Amino acid sequence: MATAAVTNVHPTPTAEQLVERARAMIPTLKARAKACVANRDVPAESIAEFQEAGFFKILQPKRWGGFEMHPNVFYDVQKALAEGCMSTGWMYGVVGCHPYEIALFHEEAQAEVWSEDTSTLVSSSYQPVGKVTPVEGGFRLSGRWGFSTGSVHCKWVVLGAMVPPSEPGGAPDMRAFLLPRSDYTIDLNSWHVFGLQGTGSHDVIVDDVFVPDYRTHRAVDGFLCQNPGQLTNTGPLFTLPWAQVFMRSVSTAAFGGARAAINAAISIAQSRVSTNTGKASKSDPFLMAAISKAYAQVTEMEQTLRLTFEDLMAHAERGEPIPMQKRTHYAYNSSSVVRRMADLVDDMVQLLGGRAIYMSSEIIQPWLDLNAGRAHVANDPNNRTTDLVGGLLGQEPGFTFL
User: Fold this and answer.
1) Domain segments of the chain: what residues?
2) Neighbours of 33 (CB within 10 A)
């Protein structure tokens, strides 16, 4: 069913303007970072400022008031925000990529989310832990999902679950279920972690609610790039594999965190003199080597992932399918960068002595955040090795989140 969409009445900013706005916010986000961590959530004023700046519209369809821009614009904004506060950048990445996913749902679902307010935000948790019962017109859904980043700022949530096979011996159907705020509760006392504390990744609880079929999105549709929403959102952007977009949203904040850590290491090295050895850190060749290595390798990884989406979008704009070997390779690259950056920052921390271990040290929060970010399933390269090597051998991938 076609639905009247919303046109954007405000001038669309350029990519450069959006990134400049994000970089201008770095000092403000740094000033709010301790409160963000202490309150275990991104401040509402930051969310309001992101809305005003247009950050949440970057991947939103133009027909729903969005900018429908190149994904690298979105990731550049995310990196800048994360340099100010990695928790904030992580939250922005997860919540900010969901306008892309909503654009893949049936038109009726898109209208329910955006027809009254195109600034509506959506959170998620894709763990397939829900109990699903097929009923006429849809499904009954129950369960408890962890890690729903930014959930208190959102009016909808997307939750993962397996639809049981319709016949004995059949395969379950993995889907994402879209629910309005009235259909779930948020456990505000569930997010107590050592890093990324400010992401507000609370548990979401659903107690036997009805979800119509049109408010579900099949994982296989995202994998095949044959989504219901492509009937109305026809731009090349929405022909990309959904998983490629999402995976980058949970690895990209690490670039901002790593940049913040490198800047902190340089700042500490400028003035630190060991009270035990009397040696100045800025004269320590091992520390200089660790900082140089971190700076060079973070830049290398950043350029690699930027080229990834230049290539993916080039395929989309030409109307060509993306070769599976590229998809498995790019998924592996995205999954590996957080662990690599965490190791690089760890090398610097070890060489900064006692000054670095205080919570007041500017390098410690990024260090904690990077190590927490390693735990996300999308940031574990071990989940990608079979598909990558299998693709090199000409085998079909076994994991559809590519």
Assistant:
1) 15-106, 121-218, 242-392
2) 21
